[in-house]
Amino acid sequence: MTAGDDAALSSAPEAETVRSLAGPPGTVVWHRKDLRIADHPALAAAAHESDRILPLFVFDPAFYDERGAACDARIEFLHDCLRDLDRQYRDVGGAGLTYGHGDPLDVLARFVDAGWDVVASATPTGRYGRRRDERARERLGVDFAAGDGLVRDAARTRENWSDRVESWFAADPFDWDPRSVAVERVETGVDPDRVSDAYGVASTKTGVPTGGREAARERLREFTESIAEYPGSISSPLDAREGTSGLSAYLRFGCLSVREVHRYVDERAPDGRGKSMFVSRLFWNRHYTQKLLDWPGWLDRAVNPVYEGFNRDRHDPDLVAAWKRGETGFPMVDASMRCLRETGWLNFRMRALCASVYFHILQQPWRIGADHFYEHLIDGDAAINYTQWQSQCGLVGRPGLRLYDPRKQVRDQDPDGEFVSRWVPELDPLPTAHLDAPEKTPLAVQREVGVRIGEEYPYPVVEYESARGEFRERYGAVYGAAAARLGGEAIARRASLSGGIEAARSIAAEHGQPAALRGDDVAESQQTGLDDFE
Ligand SMILES: Cc1cc2nc3c(=O)[nH]c(=O)nc-3n(C[C@H](O)[C@H](O)[C@H](O)COP(=O)(O)OP(=O)(O)OC[C@H]3O[C@@H](n4cnc5c(N)ncnc54)[C@H](O)[C@@H]3O)c2cc1C
Predict the structure, then answer these.
(1) Do 435 and 509 belong to one domain?
(2) What are the boundaries of the region Disordered (predicted)?
(3) For ligand 1, is residue 247 a contact (CB within 6 Å)?
(4) Residue 243, phi-psi category: left (phi > 0), alpha (psi -120 to 50), beta (remainder)
(5) Is residue 114 situated within a structural domain?
(6) Residue 290 in contact with ligand 1 by CB distance below 6 A
(7) What is the CA radius of gyration of the chain?
(8) Centroid of ligand 1 to alpha carbon of 348 (angstroms)
């Protein structure tokens, strides 16, 4: 993002504009990442308690200037969602969405000073959002309405967690009657187009879906019709693009609630493996989000202190840059990283592969990699991205470290070489049999097809087998100590395992010794099973 011609967008609405709203004050519904009007806890609460509501979204410069962590494509997706939210309010007879700009606390304070209440949906966020929400609660009396299925009212959040989430899924959605309340709006001169101009938002990504509830509902409808094919589509990066739900960005921005998706699929999809696998992933969504609620440190500190700073002494900016550019010499990693940069999406297995190769094979500090994902993913969700990164890297200290072999992934998931050729076109002339390890292609073949490894395409930036062995040794040397730390209550709580403190303690009891890793602790990866959160 670069500041455009219109960079001087002022803070809005001004206090005078807010004061000029005719009639008695009501309740501001402060939308953040819940861009819908159905199953919305804060909106339902406001509509029940007030005769007048004013839905508000505040464009916060912190997300648009150099501090912002999102690529332009995610910002554009957000802007689609906002236009759609404005339409949703108008479609039920309301005046639409009010757009503010500036520090959200300054903007909200103008409403509070004019006698308005403010309510927002409670949502786990990183440090910035957490501080913002705490200040909003303390200084302005903003009320945060829970209702997202996460457990907040228990000392041990994981006690009966699955049952509680299941009851939330089964409960009726939050409801409100648009006829019983006046939906107000104030003109501020701010809207997504002006914000895009002011901050120079201009995505270069391709194939990014349109944001908003309408597009989300259409995607959900189509996916539900073909849900039987879901299990067979998950692992291949090509099949997954159409075969998985494609709902992650819509869920991240709350165009649909996770509960709405669950209910729709539960009622309409045929029973079978596709349905049950999909539903289990909706639980994972809540499971990983609960983790961030339980411990905000997931975003920047190793959850298990034994692994804090792991790989830091090996930080090599050239290796990191090669990984980011998709020039590691491992075709499946390179294709995936280029696909991520160009489209903002990757299926689960390729995300896990790229994280694994980055941390286990290139042996680079995890956070730089996680931040890169977070920047480029359209569905970049702090709660899922950083917790998944730490889990995939093995920073929790659970047994069963997942090491992905990038060459095996070509053979298993792209046997015809379609994905690799699409994203690494310089390898297209190479016979498919050599796409898993191009550096081993006989020179005669390289000459014949006109692809010279080391020139058109790099040799692997590290030697795979020795790097893997070295990592196992380094990781294994401290694994017993890491597992032991899970036995302590503070670390067990922050690890937020689905089995709760007891699960963490039993890992500590079984594996917690300073000895080297047992052979079966480092296994070839499997897609995460439902058991992982049960
Ligand atoms: C390193 C890494 C980083 C990731 N970062 C994100 C992220 O920032 N945002 C994000 O939404 N997902 C993330 N995931 C999880 C997963 O890859 C995506 O949710 C999925 O690929 C999105 O595509 P889909 O909506 O078609 O998924 P589907 O297979 O259709 O799944 C439906 C929904 O279930 C949830 N879900 C699926 N898999 C997982 C999972 N493993 N963990 C938690 N929830 C899951 C998502 O909300 C998803 O939209 C990450 C995974 C890894 C390994």
Answers:
(1) yes
(2) 1-20, 512-534
(3) yes
(4) alpha
(5) yes
(6) no
(7) 24
(8) 6
**Count of residues in the chain:** 534
Range of the domain at 30: 15-174
Instruction: For Cα atoms 329, 332, 337, give the angle at the middle one, nearest 5 degrees.
Output: 85
From the DSSP assignment, how many helices (H) and strands (E) are in the chain? 24, 8
Flag whether 278 is marked binding.
Answer: yes
Query: Which residue from 388, 528, 530 has its CB within 8 A of the most atoms of ligand 1, so it is best to mutate?
Result: 388
Boundary of a domain, candidates 245, 267, 294: 294
Q: Are residues 288 and 321 in the same domain?
A: no
Q: Taking the model in full, what pTM does it have?
A: 0.95
> What are 80-134's pLDDT values in tens digits?
999 999 999 999 999 999 999 999 999 999 999 999 999 999 999 988 899 999 9
ipTM for the complex shown: 0.99
C-alpha distance from residue 385 to each of 253, 265, 288, 421 (Å): 14, 25, 9, 27
Asked if 333 and 289 sit in the same domain, the reply is no
- Clarify whether residues 314 and 411 are in a common domain: yes
DSSP string across 258-269: HHHHHHHHHHHS
Q: Which two tokens stand for residue 97?
A: 């969405």
- Give the nearest ligand 1 atom to 247 CA: 25
Secondary structure percentages of the chain, helix, strand, coil, to 5: 55, 5, 40
What rounded mean pLDDT belongs to the chain? 94
Any domain includes 170: yes
Question: Which residue's CA is the nearest one to ligand 1's atom 15?
Answer: 348
Phi, psi of 442, rounded to the nearest 5 degrees:
-55, 145
The answer to whether the CB of 288 is under 6 A from ligand 1 is: yes
Q: Report CA(347)–ligand 1 centroid distance (Å).
A: 8
Q: What is the pLDDT of residues 403-440, one digit of tens each?
A: 999 999 999 999 999 999 999 999 999 999 999 999 99
Residue 381 among known ligand-binding residues: yes
Please report, for the domain that includes residue 429, its CATH number. 1.10.579.10
Domain count, the chain: 3
Tell me whether residue 185 is in a domain: no
160 Cβ partners below 8 Å, 6+ apart? Answer: none
